[in-house]
Design goal:
The structure is a homodimer. Chain A is mainly α. Chain A folds into two domains: 56 residues, Arc Repressor Mutant, subunit A (Orthogonal Bundle); 96 residues, no CATH class. Chain A has ten helices and no strands. In chain A, helix 1 crosses helix 2. The first copy, chain A, is elongated and about 55 Å long. Chains A and B meet through helix 4, helix 6, helix 7, helix 8 and helix 9 of A and helix 4, helix 6, helix 7, helix 8 and helix 9 of B. Chain B binds a DNA duplex through helix 1 and helix 3.
Chain lengths: 187, 187
DNA sequence: AAGAAATCGAACAAAATGTACGAAAACGGA
DNA sequence: TCCGTTTTCGTACATTTTGTTCGATTTCTT
């Protein structure tokens, strides 16, 4: 690959990720990116059609690291590669995220429709905590705030799936799926 | 409340939600909203400071319906109000969403950082499905696609929580929480 | 009917967008 | 090192959006 391209892309990526740590993705302009990267306007558009294009490219690049070469991750965190379970696979992913936490934090803090979901999630977590009398705290070592955030977020995921599949499942069934998969049957 | 204000806000809301069903939130401009609502530019800014402000207002209005008056929801869907469990509460919420599915669909389809999460989720679901040999299909009536989407999304929620709390939990512990709350211990 | 409040619309500066083009620079293969 | 190719630069440009201002006008409330 042409060195100039590599240099230009690197400059754009760096500027973009830097900006991402300062402000929301939605408020970052192409102008700011090229100013920060110190490249010509036309140069940017020679590589990316839109700002979304750039984000996609960055995501793609990031994830190529996350999901490739589990073995490497294992090697660097001393897991026996024979124990190839989902749990370990997920653990390896988490280690990778942790190793590059700065980059991922920037991306993870993007938001937009999140305004909506965060409303929903907050309300749900409160709602769930209100029904907690049947739940024995202390029996497990799962932090209460994790449990509430997680269940709220997981329920949102169920709702998202529900809408993706055109609400063809009845609410009762959906809730039963949710309850079954989260072991919240008792509530 | 002044009728003019009510009319103006209604016009803005209608135009906004209409646009929301045609394009992504991020690409909707104030210009389009006031054109569609047929109101003066200054009038819009008299009610909302920014486009995000408007979205927040719409969300707030929408959720005030979702989380208020469970009793009403119960009445209209014949639940015995004595059975006040979390499951029923969630079911009622789902019914409400279903009743107003058109409005909610519009909001739900917003995206932005979703570009990132959807990448992640897709990969995760694939990963999980690869470890499914231990899972007995057919034993439950939970659809396979729901299970995969859900577990992927739920794991993302765990990761989000992880980052919100500054990665202070070890990857192993986080995965064990996830496994415990989703009954995926066996994998 | 009268005073208050909201809307209109036109105008404005500032900024961003996406595109175009020729000149200059950097590249890679021979 | 040379030469054709590719990339970058810089500038320019038309268009669009943004957020604000202000007086005139309309609509509301009482």
């Amino acid at each position: 690959m042409d060195r100039r391209i590599k240099r230009t892309k690197a400059a754009i990526y760096a500027a973009f990720e830097e900006l991402l740590s300062e402000k929301k993705y939605e408020h970052i302009t192409v102008q700011e990116i090229i100013d920060r990267a110190d490249i010509g306007r036309s140069t940017f558009y020679a590589h990316f059609e839109t700002r979304d294009d750039l984000l996609k490219a960055v995501c793609s690049e990031l994830f190529s690291h996350v999901f490739s070469d589990h073995s490497k991750a294992e090697a660097s965190h001393d897991f026996s590669s024979e124990d190839d379970t989902l749990k370990n696979a997920l653990t390896h992913i988490l280690y990778h995220l942790k190793d590059d936490r700065k980059r991922y934090s920037r991306i993870f803090s993007c938001e937009s429709s999140e305004i909506f979901w965060s409303y929903f999630r907050k309300q749900l977590s409160e709602l769930i905590s209100g029904y907690n009398y049947g739940y024995e705290t202390g029996k497990t070592d799962i932090p209460e705030d994790f449990r509430l955030d997680f269940l709220g977020g997981a329920f949102i995921e169920a709702v998202k799936w529900w809408f993706r599949t055109d609400l063809k499942t009845s609410p009762e069934k959906l809730v039963s799926y949710f309850a079954a998969l989260t072991g919240q049957d008792q509530l």
